[in-house]
Amino acid sequence: MLETAAQLTAATADTSEVEWQLDASDLDAVERWLSSSEPHAGLTARPTGRKLIVDHYVDTSDLRLYAAGFAARLRGANGKSEATLKSIVSDGDPDAGLRRRLELNEPIRYALLHSLANARGPVGSRIRQHAAVTDLRVLFTVRTDRRTAIVSSEGRDVGEVALDDTTIEAGDRRASIRRVEVEALGPNLEDVLAPFVEQLRATHDLLPGTSSKFGGGLTLAHEAGIIEGAIPTPGVPTEMRPAVSAPLDTPQLPRLYDTLAVLAEAAPADLPKRALRPASRELPRILKRQFRAFDARVRQIETTADPPATLLHETRIRAKRLRYAAEFATPLYGKRAVALVSALKGAQDTLGLHQDAEVAIADLRTLASSPGAALPPATLFAMGEIAERYRHAQRAQRDELPAVITAVRRRWRRLRSTMQTRQETA
Fold first, then answer.
1. Residue 372 Cα to chain centre, angstroms
2. Does the pLDDT at position 13 exceed 60?
3. Of 122, 150, 220, 409, whose CB has the highest number of CB atoms within 10 Å?
4. Distance, CA of 151 to CA of 165 (rounded, Å)
5. Is pTM beyond 0.70 here?
6. How many CA atoms lie less than 13 Å away from 278 in the CB half-sphere?
7. Are strands 91-93 and 16-23 parallel, antiparallel or unpaired?
8. How many C-alpha atoms does 148 have within 13 Å on its Cβ side?
């Protein structure tokens, strides 16, 4: 019998996650508040650092895990990987942003789907109840720049505060969320943390989280065509038969896994010389190549009176590639790499909104000119007004572009200086 999230929650109540989720527009102000030496509602907070987290949410194309009430996540952060299974439905106090739900975690070798094949713990075994690993796909990816602080009561750590600047990506769709999350670090701590959270909310006018990262990502994946058909009602498992062959079922993927396995087991003498060089020597070459590709497109934009939307779209892709390389370099270069990632997020957001408007205008044009549409004049007029609003938004985004590009270049120069220093002292 297939196990649903509701059944598992009833059987394992001690594995519940208790957290408050609050939407925030100014995370810096919250960070300053947490960093002050004054107690808040009798509790003290101490900053504990910053990290970049990459989460891949996975399911089948017909959402068998979701239908059973689960959200499945593969997380990579600070060189460690884990698989997580959460219940979608939560109880708590929505008006306060409080959520209680089942959460199970299991370490895995890599934050990749094939690692689930060897995951024999509470997460991997339950996921495989509902779907073979080859049936799974990545629905969407969540990238989070997270700043954390630990909340203590009389020397005892009782909670963790996370300030999350998050981007959700599904196909060519994106969304951003800025959120404060406060999680209890043990059972029976909800009443201890509640006054602290209430003071946090009141001080910064924070509102309860209106949607989860998972819910937002699911919507984007549906819009991008990654999810097939209607989204099912969670809690009732669907048939085990996959609707179509999953995209991971390709000849190339097993070869990739075999190559990764060979690399993982290889002796130093079996590896190419470049693989044995220090990261401080190899990463600058990779980063410089990605920046040159990005900056070349930017210069085309700057020297063209009316740059085409295709050029802006290609520039966004190059910004994304540079950002991924910079994220990989953060353990070595620290704050300056993080600063470049943040600036590139701004560039991606601006260029992405421009591309979204371009796609929307094209869709309106196609709908208006469709032979069988026969739309009334009032509808066509309204569609024209909507298209003009998108054009106005595009002009605003082009006006913003010089500032975000300047920020990327400035932070790149600082990172380049750090890379040069590290190379000279390596």
1. 40
2. no
3. 220
4. 20
5. no
6. 9
7. unpaired
8. 12
